[in-house]
Write a structure and sequence with these properties.
The chain is about 20% helix and about 20% strand. The strands form 2 sheets. It has a 4-stranded antiparallel β-sheet with strand order 4-3-5-6. It starts with a strand and ends with a helix. A hairpin with a 2-residue loop joins strand 1 and strand 2. By secondary structure, it is α+β, with helices and mostly antiparallel strands. The longest helix is centred in the middle third of the chain and has 7 residues. The chain has one domain. The structure holds zinc ion (ZN) (3 copies).
Length: about 120
């Protein structure tokens, strides 16, 4: 299925109006990721795996300035580096994001793990 969230098309499984999905549906799970393989936003890697029909690609470290992270609360498309730097909240609307390393940055972005999990 797909849903338009703040004017942005998000594909996935049971996507709600703030980009939550069947797999991640807590209050703070309001982030969708644009996958570089298909240039499409999905709420999570499992949504991509179940509905895209192809292998997911990750953003290389050289492209972290791409706007590839959608805040489902305010609709801002954040750059990957802004998202990673903000860690647990939206830098624009301050809505809490899921702060766990278990949000699996490494499934989406090629980042040095020590950078991502430094204060986890
Ligand atoms: Zn894809
Ligand atoms: Zn999902
Ligand atoms: Zn926001």
């Amino acid at each position: 299925m797909e849903r338009w969230v703040h004017g942005v098309r998000v594909r996935g499984v049971e996507v709600d109006e703030a980009t939550r999905c069947r797999h991640y549906h807590k209050a703070e799970d309001v982030v969708a990721i644009r996958f570089p393989c298909c240039d499409t936003y999905y709420p999570c890697h499992a949504c991509h795996e179940e509905t895209a029909g192809h292998e997911a690609a990750r953003w290389p470290a050289s492209r972290l300035s791409e706007r590839a992270v959608l805040c489902g609360a305010c609709g801002t498309e954040l750059t990957i580096s802004a998202y990673v730097a903000a860690k647990d909240h939206c830098p624009v609307c301050q809505h809490p994001f899921n702060p766990r390393c278990a949000s699996h940055y490494e499934l989406y972005f090629e980042l040095p793990s020590e950078e991502v999990c430094a204060d986890a």
